[in-house]
Amino acid sequence: MLKINEIYFSIQGESTHAGLPCIFVRLTYCNLRCTYCDTEYAFYEGKDMSIQEILTEIGKYNCDTVEITGGEPLMQKEVLPLMTQLCDKGYKVLIETGGSLPIQNIDPRVHVIMDLKCPSSRMLKKNKYENIEFIKPIDEIKFVIGSREDYDWSKEMIQKYDLLNKCEVLFSVVFGSLKPVELVNWIIEDALKVRFQLQMHKFIWDPKEKGV
Questions:
Q1: Side-by-side strand order, sheet with 111-115
Q2: CATH of 2-204, one of 2.60.40.10, 3.40.605.10, 3.20.20.70, 3.30.2130.10
Q3: Is pTM beyond 0.85 here?
């Protein structure tokens, strides 16, 4: 059984898959408390569902892409067989993880989108840097940047772990804290080969709206 906060059909708002239709499966619970968290409602709320019940719900939508998110989805061990079964059924599976829990047991067919938490998140100590060893070319590493300190730290991590030669690297702003143009200007000034992204869903719908 898995505790599920919500399952819904929308468009992907972030990552290299932004703009594409996607079924979202949001799991309950999170072991992090980032200062800018926008899904606190997923910390505790949810209902128990079997893997088969989840697959049945996903099957109601005419879409072949599924993102597993949270909260922190890797807190629930049953998420691993869920993702494998989805892959077996031919779905493209993405998982958004905060980067504090091991990723090595995730089915290699799954596209991992993993955060490295910047200083302003106040979760820097939770980063599990060993995960970088298991990052695949189809995966993505995301930095959510709220200050110049965050930006400079992110550059250091990119160089230290040679991230640009491992996978796609994503930079986005802490929504409402740093202006997108500031981050874009820093990237341009440094000719940094990262992908800038906006949280598209927060511009299409109200930033606080659920199920989008």
A1: 47-49, 2-11, 21-27, 65-69, 92-97, 111-115, 140-145, 168-173, 195-196
A2: 3.20.20.70
A3: yes
